[in-house]
Amino acid sequence: MARPLEHGKQKTVFDVFRERGFIEKVTDEEKIPEVLGGKVTCYIGFDPTASSFHVGNLIPIMALSHMQRHGHRPIALAGGGTGLVGDPSGKDEMRQILTYEEIAKNAESQKKQFARFLDFSNGRALLLNNADWLTKLNYIDFLRDIGVHFSVNRMLAAESVKIRLESGLSFIEFNYQLLQAYDFWYQFKHYDCLIQMGGSDQWGNIVAGIDLIRRLEGKQAYGITFPLIMTADGRKMGKTEKGAVWLDPERTSPYEYYQFWINTDDRDVKRFLALFTFLPMEEIQEKYGKLEGADLRKAKEDLAYEATKIVHGKEEADKAKSASRALFVNVSEKVGITESVRMEADDSIPTTPMGKEKFSEGIPAFKLFETVGLCASSSEARRLIEQGGAYVNNRKVNKFDDLVRQEDFNPNCTVLLRAGKKKFHRIKMLDKK
Known about the structure:
The protein is of the alpha/beta class. It has 19 helices and 15 strands. The N and C termini lie far apart (59 Å).
């Protein structure tokens, strides 16, 4: 539980982190709150092995945004150099090593997503790529100047290394801690970066960087780690039956993104409002303290709307909210989906185009639900239908092999599929194959 502020004391970003649930460990419990009472530069490194971030990356990105909102200067560091090596932390096997071109392309794609959270104008935030300095290192000089400060015994004692020693740890991965420590020192030296933050699996790497700064510069730096966020039912945050929930609208549409949040477990709503929105904590405590029924539905809607607005903008959040409300109202009242609702939701509901000829003889419902991604497999689709949770145009599917035919499509050549109460998918019938 967050400790109350002393009377008259101004809230710092450390207080915000603490009350919102961002902090797992800090390297100096007494000094860091004091340091964050002033203005500092901090950084977090991001792995560029994918072209988009996903919901699981939101905690560190939100943390950088909170830092900036409190007057600090955040550095978002793309791991263009360390990505060529691969971080063994939290992994039970070696990552696939990507090419220089793949890493650079992914890092460029991620830049656009950072801009949703951070203001890079006038140097208020920095976007760096450690390839700019790591790829220029001379190996022998690096060993003499940096490697000499690292104890192999201490590195072997790190939890991330011990876990991997059982399954096999490559020499290239073993070097990763030296490179990340060098990153911290480099930014300390050239950008006055005083704090490194990261996930709980980065603790050993962060401490190694602090130690290197102390040895090379004789000065003190600091570290903060965030907890691994799990849902109330024990799943890793951001993982669904369909896989990761991406921030890229081409991979996860704004409507699907909104639906991910509105389907939050009741037990997680208040916690996720604190972590994944910028709503004031006073408002969250007051409005969402103890909720049930319609009030809980409203809280989930607020969570979905605020989270979607941050990533996709107000216009897309408005569209997703409007479409979700319209569909929810129609399902709740057990009436058919009207044409006006279809028109309102046109730009938001996930849609799959399919050739007209595919429906001339009909497609089994279970196969269609799997094809569009409402179910992860044919067996899951069969179970959904058997349990009465599958609908075509708001009509319950009674048998798993019921056929969806051309006559099921409305005059606009669309048909609406629904799994349960909240998951929708539309099929647009095309004349061509």
